[in-house]
Design a protein that fits this description.
Blueprint (H helix, E strand, L loop, with lengths): L6 H11 L6 H10 L6 E5 L5 H8 L3 E6 L4 H9 L7 E5 L11 E6 L11 H11 E9 L14
Parallel strand pairs: 1-2, 1-4, 2-3, 4-5
Length: 153
């Protein structure tokens, strides 16, 4: 990964996010996509599970992915999931993903810019291939002037 941040950094960062609000892009795509009952979403880079929780509350089945140590327990704690059959947690580095489930929504908030540029075409193709016809794709990218941009080199 092109970032200088360690596993311990990401675990601490994600722990600090657990009480946070749903990011605006995720809230917007949930509102636009409508009732998630019977539909599946990917939370790509789920972190603490804040957006995973929002998707679950909106009725979605969620496939949450993150590589940080402690992801499984962190997401279970944040989501307080009442129906475990609606949540799959995959602890994996994005670069190691071989396949993704077919879904109706992909939310990738502030995660795809951590994919190494040489691996990005494969990961992006994998994400796009997971989208069912009519699916929603909500992605945040950093600009070159973003304060995080220097950490990605």
């Amino acid at each position: 990964m092109p970032t200088a941040h360690t596993d311990a950094h990401w675990a601490a960062y994600n722990d600090a996010q657990a009480g946070g609000e749903v990011r605006p892009l995720c809230g917007e795509v949930i509102a636009r996509a409508g009732d998630g009952a019977g539909h599946t979403a990917i939370d790509f880079g789920c972190g603490a599970g804040v957006e995973t929780r929002a998707l679950l509350r909106a009725g979605w089945h969620v496939h949450a992915i993150d590589a940080a140590p402690g992801t499984r327990q962190r997401v279970l704690t944040t989501t307080e999931v009442s129906d475990p059959a609606r949540l799959t947690i995959e602890v994996s580095d994005f670069h190691d993903l071989a396949e993704l489930p077919a879904v109706d929504l992909v939310y990738a908030g502030y995660s795809l810019h951590f994919v190494h540029p040489l691996a990005f075409p494969r990961v992006w193709a994998l994400l796009r291939a997971s989208l069912l016809p009519g699916a929603w794709l909500a992605v945040n990218f950093l600009g070159e002037r973003d304060s995080w941009a220097p950490t990605l080199k």
